[in-house]
Amino acid sequence: MPYVFLFLAIISEVIGTSALAASNQFTKLVPSLITVAGYGLGFYFFSFALKSIPMGVAYAIWGGVGIVLVTIIGFVFLKQKLDFPALAGIALIVIGVLVMQLFSKTISH
Hints:
single chain, 109 residues, 4 helices, cell membrane, transmembrane helix, antiporter activity, membrane, EmrE-like
């Protein structure tokens, strides 16, 4: 169940970040409200994930997966370009999350 909460935290934060890009520095009401709700729910769900997942590991997964998802959204929907170093960095983030998930004894599977 803690990974369900972590997944919900990541999705909420990604929604909040995506809406933040559309809020035009909080001048558009609906995207601004979605941003606040997304971040609020993200931290709420993250707090439940922290009951069972070590904080550093949970935060690394949350940050890493969030970065990848936000980058994909930026690329697909906002037509943001990615150069090779950006793609290489994102690949390293994915590899880091996979290494923790597959090999770390710190994480309760």
